[in-house]
Amino acid sequence: MIVDDREHDLIKRLNAEKVSFEVRRLPVGDIMFQHNGTTALVERKRTDDFAASISDGRWREQKARLATSGAIVIYLIEGSLYGQRKTPEVLSSAIWNTILRDKMCVIQTRGLEDTSLHLQQLEKKIGYTIKGNSGITSLVSKRKRKADNVFLLMLMTLPGISERIATAIVDKYSTLQLLQSQLRDDATILKEIAVSTKRNIGTKTIKTLCTFLSFFCYRNLPHFVHIDRDLSSRLSQSRSQTCSHCCS
Predict the structure, then answer these.
(1) For the purposes of burial, counting CB atoms within 10 Å of the CB of 175, is it exposed (0-12), middle (13-18) or buried (19 or more)?
(2) Do 206 and 233 form a contact (C-beta atoms < 8 A)?
(3) CB-based contact 183:214 (threshold 8 Å)
(4) What is the pLDDT, as a whole number, of residue 133?
(5) What is the rounded distance in angstroms from the CA atom of residue 78 to the CA atom of residue 101?
(6) What torsion do the CA atoms of 57, 62, 64, 68 make, to the nearest 10 degrees?
(7) Residue 157: its pLDDT value, please?
(8) pLDDT of residue 151
(9) Section 179-208 average pLDDT
């Protein structure tokens, strides 16, 4: 954790709690985390400064600079939205715009104590894999998130493919090309993939994978897979050359 040298009250609080951190001047953001190639910038604002920054334009300017940093951006808003220069409705609207439109995280805290708590917990998660059903790496940069999880996330968009099933498939076939190759050669092999201690991948899942991922080659599909030919025809229109090469 690196804290900007102008965050005097936060530095004092972290020192009092015996938190390990570095102090230096940051060009953007108030707190920075770096781990495993992932960078997160935290902008800390008391609600009075939050309201003032909307009035004088700093709020928009700071967001623009943070957005171009390439880091994960997190706002910590300290205090109540009531009793400020702007109405609670205006402040709440600015928070939701930041979350929904600008795709930045916003957390409201009661004060410095909560802020310190959140920062210490955040440090334990930046750049790490958070254990759960999906196994998706949480809080990583956009580039790393795409590189690590794009195949997993793609599988999860298919009908009936849950996080658990997608994870089991990716553990066995790390790329789309490897999975497609197996589907063409012998799709029934996927029945050997364990989803849990009591369940393997089933016929319905294999049918879904064949329908959406192996629509360009029918010859080696298992007998129990009855492809929706109309769907497959629509999907393959843009891949006529691939189909011709595959099935020739």
Answers:
(1) exposed
(2) no
(3) yes
(4) 55
(5) 22
(6) 170
(7) 87
(8) 84
(9) 91
- The model's pLDDT over 56-74, given as tens digits with 9 standing for 90+, comes to 999 999 999 999 888 999 9
- CA torsion sign for 204, 205, 207, 208 is positive
pTM of the model: 0.56
Whether the CB-CB separation of 190 and 202 falls below 8 Å is answered with: no
- Please report, in angstroms and rounded to a whole number, the separation of the first and last CA atoms in the chain: 58
**Cα distances (angstroms) measured from residue 230 to each of 9, 153, 227:** 65, 26, 9
DSSP E strand stretches across the chain: 2-3, 22-23, 31-35, 38-46, 72-78, 105-109
pLDDT in tens, 135-187: 555 555 554 555 567 788 888 888 888 888 988 999 999 888 899 889 888 88
Distance of CA 243 to the CA centre of its chain: 34
Tokens read off for 83 = 């009793």
Query: Which whole number is the average pLDDT over 187-199?
Result: 91
Ranges of H-type helices in 79-202: 88-100, 112-123, 142-155, 163-172, 176-186
Token pair for residue 192?
């050997």
CB atoms within 10 A of CB 141: 17
CA distance linking residue 99 with residue 139, whole number of Å: 15
Tokens found for residue 246: 């595959």
Residue 158: CB partners within 8 Å, gap ≥ 6?
208, 209, 212
How far from the centroid of its chain's Cα atoms is residue 27's Cα?
25
Task: Spell out the domains of the chain, with CATH numbers in brackets.
Answer: 2-123 (3.40.50.10130), 142-247 (1.10.150)
**Reduced to 3 states, what is the DSSP secondary structure of residue 243?**
helix
